[in-house]
């Protein structure tokens, strides 16, 4: 039997937010909230370069998938600034976004945040 490689995107409520604007260009993040999320505060996984939906779903995690500026158009310091701005958005705006997406049913546990990424080039 062949493995099913279909991503479970339909099991999430998904919303896109602008977390910053650079030279009139918005930079986005996607918020993935499992549709079956239990009541209460949930841990957060901030993920750069997408993926990991199955893990988020199995563990009732709030997934924040972020865009950021890339080299060579930008430099490493620009990327670090984008990461800092994502963190600021998570600290200041994620709870409000969650309240909207879950009708106040679930929030975020900012004491349990995991940041993940992968090699983004040479």
Structure description:
Residues 54-121 form the Alpha/beta hydrolase fold-3 domain. With 122 residues, the protein is α/β, with parallel strands linked by helices. It has a single domain (11-116), classed as 3-Layer(aba) Sandwich (Rossmann fold). It is built from 2 helices and 5 strands. The mean pLDDT is 88.
Brief summary of the model shown:
The protein is of the alpha/beta class.
Strand content: 35-45%
Return the domain count. 1
Q: Note the gap between the termini.
A: 37 Å
- Helical element count? 2
Number of strands: 5
Secondary structure: elements and pairs:
Blueprint: E1 12-22, E2 25-34, E3 40-48, H1 53-58, E4 62-66, H2 76-102, E5 106-116
Tag the structure with descriptive keywords.
alpha/beta, Rossmann fold, 2 helices, 122 residues, five-stranded mixed beta sheet, 38% strand
